[in-house]
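Why does this matter for the project? Reviewers at the last site visit asked to see concrete outputs rather than summary tables. In response, this paragraph embeds two records directly. Each consists of the residue sequence and, immediately after it, the corresponding structure tokens. Nothing has been edited or filtered.
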Amino acid sequence: MTALINRIIDHSGVNGPGIRMVLMFQGCNFHCRYCHVPETLGNCNGCGICAYHCPAEALKPDMPGIAPQWIEENCTDCGACINACRKDSSPKIRKMSIKDVLDYTAGRLGQIRGITCSGGECTLYPEFMAELFPIIRRQKLSCLIETNGSVDLEKQGDLMKYCDGVMLDIKAANPVKHQELTGHSNEQVFKNAEFLARTGKLVEIRTVITRTDYGAEETVEKAAALLRPYLKKNDIAYRLIPFRVFGVRREYRRLGTPSPEKLEGLRSLAESCGFTQVFVS
């Protein structure tokens, strides 16, 4: 069994509690306007344009339709290939097996508290994670998921059995605004939020806040109303993430960073709605 991995972050302090290794899976079924890793959205079509923009000669063009060969030792990670790509992809994607991931993890066991699967959208690879997680847990590491909530997790019994917790994006409560922002419905997102809270798997919900209004107050209030029955039993955190232009596609950078006053108002609102752990970061 294999999965497409965009990259692996060896040590992260922002993808769950403690220092964690992060697997960034390739491919996403949402196309969020403010996505800061748009190179994880699509799949390489082998057009070869990126190779001609690489100043380090780290990409060797192959036959049309086949991704260029990535010469990792030449790569300076300058991002020129990512900027040149027209498919929201990367020529540096790895097809990794469970063994590949375990071999990579082996040399870092004493340095990390666990792994977090992210992306892209990692829940597009449920079988891969369901096979990987029990092995990782036997190494005394925890297994977390970051997800847009688009896949029905209640139907992923094998995966949820071994998943220690989920960090769920709730991008917008208003269905029209959510469709505008992501290109998809939010119905399954809220079903997953209730399921995860009910089963004690919901660690954190997250909402990116932009200067352009996507109904942040409504989102906080609807999330609180849905999760209120579970907040006393499970201390679910709410993370409000200010929009940042880093990595965002040029045409969407105009969404803008919200004012400190707006963020503080949302923090106060979330706390008044019953969340005891509210973070702005």
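We now turn to the second protein, recorded in exactly the same manner.
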Amino acid sequence: MPPSTRTRKQSSSRRVTAAGRKAALAAGANSAAGPSAVAGLPTPPYAQVKQYLKDALEAGLWAPGVQIPSEAELVAQFGVSRMTVNRALRELQDAGLITRLQGVGSFAAQLNRVSSTLTINDIQDEIRRRGHRHEARVHLKRAEAASAALAARLGLAPGATVFHTLIVHHEDGVALQCEDRYVNPACAPDYLSIDFTQQTPTHYLLDVAPLWEAQVAIEAALPTAQEAKLLGIARTDPCLIVVRGTVSRGVPVTRARLVHPGARYTLESQFKP
């Protein structure tokens, strides 16, 4: 290899290391960014910028809708090219974590949407979009001790206090959804003081604990005796049952069982490539 080529490669390696140190300091690390697990290579500069922004978003440094540092600011902070920063921002946008407006800047995304594969819908919004009347009837609203299984799902100790609500949502007077929900008090300490006849738990929780992760299971099954009674259906009527758990900034927020009479409800989704 000619000496001039070797010198250029060594200089490039030093620049990557410097950028890694800046990214680590910006993220609050105590040492330089270490090598990646692949063949001992340094972490690519765009990945360092992306990880810093992702960690800051997860930590709540920028609330949903708040503008994050500009491309020029990130270029100066990390000592990398504008193309490198643009790639990091583009991948965060593709993941649904930021929104970008040409000529304006980049903003922390509204985190009720997780990438392009999942949308957390509010039953009240669904009903109102159809031009119909929503009514919520609260059948249970209390603090209680968590079972071992529930505590494990919410990251709590067995017997720890959880908030529990049981609400039936009606569309034009017809029961459409039975919502049995448990909430981690650390994420929503005022949960039991909310009037859920006016605001749904989903809407409230998305405001106070922005969604970062969600796990959803959907099945066709029969309702429990209590669910059948609350929904005004027969115990043998099939239902669409959605079990959903959500996480905000690494902390489990809620576990909900949403039961819909199969003859009254259609699960809808939309996809655009």
